[in-house]
Specification:
Blueprint (H helix, E strand, L loop, with lengths): L1 E6 L2 E3 L5 E9 L1 E12 L5 E7 L5 E3 L7 E6 L4 E6 L8 E12 L5 E7 L3 E5 L2
Length: about 120
């Protein structure tokens, strides 16, 4: 029905940069908040950054000033620009979106959708 597809993860040296992208597809009527979460080894999944449909942003304290979240409402896409990466940023990063979808009978369905995750490894 609705799918979030992430890309852009990989291996980078400390101090380097990466950009993650996530595109939503399917029977979408509207997308409200979009966000990036991450889950490090042995840790819980935590919010990294979020952005409303109007462009208001929120960041975890550990990434503020280094990461930037943005979205393109015409393409149902959210990006995460990550700069000055640190080893502690190593995690699986997940895209998340609050989506109002259309069901098979044309009904509205509210979904909190997740991507499959993309690995980011910061290491020398």
């Amino acid at each position: 029905q609705v799918q979030l597809l992430e890309s852009g993860g990989g291996l980078v040296e400390p101090g380097g940069s990466l950009t993650l992208s996530c595109t939503a597809s399917g029977s979408i009527s509207r997308i409200d908040d979009m966000a990036w979460y991450r889950q490090g080894p042995g840790k819980e999944r935590d919010l990294v950054a979020s952005i409303t449909s109007g462009g208001y942003t929120n960041y975890a304290g550990s990434v503020k000033g280094r990461f930037a979240i943005s979205r393109d409402n015409t393409k149902n896409t959210v990006n995460l620009q990550m700069n000055r990466l640190k080893p502690e940023d190593t995690a699986v990063y997940y895209c998340n979106a609050d989506i109002l979808a259309r069901g098979p009978s044309d009904e509205y369905i509210a979904l909190k959708s997740w991507g499959q995750g993309t690995q980011v490894t910061v290491s020398s």
